[in-house]
Structures are given as C-alpha cells and as structure tokens.
Amino acid sequence: MTDLEDHLDAQYESSFPRLAGYLPESREAVDRWQSEFVARLADGPTEPAGAVLDLRTLLRNDAIVRMYVIQMMEQVQPPHNRVRTVDQLLRALTRIIHDVPRYDPDPRQRIAFPMSALFVYMMMTPAGQAVFRNEKFNSALQKVLKDWCGYLDSADSCRVLNEGPEGWLSPEAVKEFDLDDFEIDRTEPHWGFTSYNDYFHRRIRPDLRPVDPDPKAIVSANDGTVWKIAHLVREYDRFWLKGQPYSLADMMAGSPYAERFVNGHVLQSFLSGADYHRWHAPVSGTVRGAEVVSALMFSNAESAGQDKTAGTHSQGYQSSVNTRGLVFIEADDPKIGMVCVVPIGITEISSVTLSVTQGDTVRKGQELGYFSYGGSSMCLVLQQGAVGGFGTLKEKDVIKVNAKIARAG
After folding, report:
1. HSE, side-chain direction, 13 A CA sphere, residue 44
2. N or C: which end of the chain has fewer CB within 10 A?
3. Which residues does residue 133 pair with via DSSP β-bridges, in sequence order?
C-alpha cells in the first residue's frame, strides 16, 4: 500500500461516519459504490431543481466558492477522483435527494449514507476543509439537505419500508436493529411507519427504557456510545487543536448561561445508525432555554485526521461549530443546578427537532426531541459540583436513555 493510501486509511478510520457505522469499515466498498454511482448518473433525475439549482447559481456567481469546490475535486487523488466537475457534483446531489437509502444485510458493504460516501475524499482535501466551513456554501448545502429531508418525510419514501431483501423491515433488519423493541404494528402498511424518517426516529417501547428510580440520579439523555468525559471545562478554549477541548461559549453559541458551566463536566456520546434517535430529559426541572443553532454539517478538525487511533476525534470540534440544539434545564434539585442537553447534527441531514420550549416544566425521562436521518452526537453538560463523577463509566461504554449515569453530589 502506498503512503497516500495509508494516509487515506488513517483519515477514513478517524471519521465519524466510519466508526458510527454510517459508512462501511472498508474504503473498498466506498470506492466501488462511488464508481457505480457515477456511472449511473445519467439515469433518473439529473437536472438541478429547487435547492440544487440555487447551489448551481451560487457556484456560477461566487468565484471564491467555485474556486474551492473545483479545487477540492482536483485535490482528490486518482483513482478516487470520480466526481471531477461541478456539473457531475450537481447531478450527483440531485440524484441523491430524489432517492431513499436501501437496506444491505452486509454492514461491511452498506452505503446507507450516500452523501457521506460522495463527500468522503473531498472533505479530506485542503480545499474541502475550507469550503465546508464557508458560510455561503454551507447555507446552500443546508437547503439541499432540507429538500432531501422533505422527501424522506414523504409517503413516497416508504417504498424501502418493506420485507424484501433491500427493505428496512426485512428479517435481517429486524434482527440487526432490534425492531421488536420499538413501537410497530405489523398489521399496518409499512408496519405503521408513515415515512423513512418516521422509521429512522421510531419510538422505543417505554418498558425497555425505564427511568432510574433514584431521586438523586442524573440519567442518560440518549442511547449511544461514550466518546469523551471531560472535567474542568473552560468558557473559551482552542477547540480546533488536537484533543479538541470543549469551549463552552462556542458550544452554547454565546449564551449567558455558558459561564454557569465553567469548570463543570461534559459527557459526549455518539449515536450509531441503529440507535434510538430520540432524546430525553436527564433531570426534572424547568426549561430556561430551547433553540436550534444552524451551523456546519460536513466539517472535520484537521488535528484529528492523521491519528489511526483517533476514533471520532472531530466530535469535540463539532460541538462548537455544527448545527446543534441547546436545551437548558434548571433542575428541581438545587445540588444539580442547571444542565444543558446539546444534540449535534453530523453529516447528511441530521435534522434536530425540539419537543420543548422555554418555560416548560419537564420530568426526568420526558422526551425533549429527536434526530431525523443523519449522523448525530450528544453532549450533556453539568455544572461544577453537580456530580462527584460518572462512576465507572468510561469511553466506548454503551449508555441507554433514562439509565443512571451519575448521582447528584
């Protein structure tokens, strides 16, 4: 293997989509998909419309954005440079947002997140790093993703919700995703799901996620895998450097509540494609603030790209720059004080939808919102002294919503 391929392997292994299962373990499957996908671009919808047409207008009228986009395609080294022109890129996006992912029983080959597979090499280039942080390009891409989200919310997207070999209700999918743990009705068309997104953020049976009865317990806001536990977090920090320390003011988008969490704790976890994608209140209390911060979707920290053991190292960086929700809850228990639940959208659509608003009272375990289709991560931020620690919980541990993760100090 060449030095270039070693370098690409290191970057691929450190990417969020690969570790979370949104992309296959092997890059060979991505390469094969890209080759077949580009060969099929002439089939199906190819003329830009809606948000893709707006993106084309941006690329025609903004020389800087066009320069970065062309450069990022040129900087992808052969044989990985399958999309080589702006026209090909626009046709690829048009095709993706008029389609719906199909199930593949082999996770080593599965491309359930085609936009991540399309962008994977482009994102690794210097120009790609720049353009995916460009405000105009990101805004245009967000509109493309919203168009796709609308399609995945539609009844037409149900066509993949079947029991066939490429259906998300196939016997293999039922077993892989523990679908019997969720609220389904096999007697209804598509088992009661009204769209692909309805399937993606399906509701779990409440008896399988009971709320921990300890009145002092702080429970997990989500199902997922622990990525990082941090203490003594700062109001401002250099989140883009290796290790990606948390920067509270950036994470919380300048909220005046950020200073209350200085020297506090952050527990960050990521959700796989098979995880339950709704999130719940970690404590009982009053919602002091609830908003969605519109920001980046496809952006990685360069500091994480070279380390083969990096895992999903860009998640700390993404907590400060990506589209995310902010739900501030003043706990009924004064020992806990305020907590902040931060659902983070990573890749694809990953729409963050809140179920609560400022002034609501919530009980521990009550639903706060959900992710639509896409990659996702979650931060739970606690004040200094709220907990003595997280017990034996450590990185890579699996957590379940409503289960105790800490006890009030």
Report:
1. 14
2. N
3. none
CA–CA distance, 157 with 179 (Å, rounded to integer) = 19
d(CA 284, CA 290): 15
Tell me the CA distances in angstroms from 25 to 1, 29, 40, 84, 388, one per residue in order.
17, 8, 24, 25, 37
SS3 320: helix
In the sheet with 265-271, reading across from the earlier edge strand, the strands are 361-362, 285-293, 324-331, 338-346, 375-382, 265-271, 224-231, 398-399
Percent of the chain residues topping a pLDDT of 90 = 78
Phi-psi region of 190 (alpha: psi -120 to 50; beta: other; left: phi over 0): left
* Maximum distance among all Cα pairs of the chain, rounded to whole angstroms: 62
Asked if residue 309 has pLDDT above 50, the reply is: no
The DSSP line for 20-67 is TTSS-S-HHHHHHHHHHHHHTTTSS--S--HHHHHHHHHHHH-HHHHH
Alpha-carbon span 147 to 398, nearest angstrom: 33
Side-chain-side CA neighbours of 182 within 13 Å: the count stands at 24
pLDDT on residue 17 = 77
Strands of the sheet with 367-371, listed across from one edge: 278-280, 367-371, 352-354
**Interior angle at CA 339, CA 249 and CA 251, nearest 5:** 20
- What is the pLDDT at residue 49? 85
Helix axes 135-152, 50-61, angle to 10 degrees: 170
Closest CA to 128 of 80, 61, 178: 80
Write the pLDDT tens digit of every residue in 264-285.
Answer: 999 999 998 889 999 999 999 9
Q: How far apart are CA 81 and CA 144, in angstroms?
A: 22
Q: SS3 for 376-392, per residue? A: EEEEEEECCCCECCCCC
